[in-house]
């Protein structure tokens, strides 16, 4: 019974992330597209990791999961610093908790595997919820006021394509 719930939970989570990604591609701006793509990418990386490694016990530091969480943190942090939105900060903060779980596991081996698993996995649910709320807010705001800047002022140059050279003469 518990295994059935666990598989259903994973299928629901994957389906929701893919649905958010599709909606972000259609109605979202670049921050929504990048963050939803990063979440789907994290799911794909996790599925590939478990296809190669198999199941994990959380009794020791999970280097594969730690790598995935660090990469997702770096992506979400870079977006959060530049996006003209608040919810990416929640995603980056949740990922920081997930990264901290791996540091804590490496430093203190007496941590219970369930505590490690919860600290590592729960932030992803916060990420999905934050993306859902942020994407909904973006769609509503766009319908209400029209297009608005996706990035903070100075970061437009960072994300924009390089300017074309002017013809001389």
UniProtKB/TrEMBL annotation:
Keywords noted in UniProt: Membrane, Transmembrane, Transmembrane helix
Domain of life: Bacteria
The keyword Transmembrane is assigned to this record: yes
Transmembrane segments: 6-26, 38-59, 65-82, 89-108, 114-137
Protein name per Swiss-Prot or TrEMBL: Uncharacterized protein
Organism listed in the record: Novosphingobium colocasiae
């Amino acid at each position: 019974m518990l295994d059935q719930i666990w598989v259903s939970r994973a299928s629901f989570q994957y389906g929701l992330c893919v649905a958010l990604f599709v909606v972000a591609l259609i109605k979202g701006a670049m921050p929504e597209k990048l963050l939803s793509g990063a979440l789907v990418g994290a799911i794909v990386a996790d599925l590939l990791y478990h296809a190669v490694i198999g199941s994990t016990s959380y009794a020791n530091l999970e280097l594969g999961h730690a790598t995935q969480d660090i990469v997702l943190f770096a992506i979400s942090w870079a977006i959060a610093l530049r996006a003209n939105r608040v919810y990416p900060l929640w995603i980056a903060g949740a990922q920081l908790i997930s990264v901290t779980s791996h540091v804590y596991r490496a430093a203190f081996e007496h941590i219970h595997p369930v505590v490690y698993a919860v600290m590592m996995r729960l932030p992803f649910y916060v990420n999905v919820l934050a993306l859902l709320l942020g994407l909904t807010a973006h769609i509503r705001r766009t319908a209400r006021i029209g297009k608005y800047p996706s990035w903070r002022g100075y970061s437009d140059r960072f994300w924009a394509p390089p300017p074309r050279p002017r013809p001389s003469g």
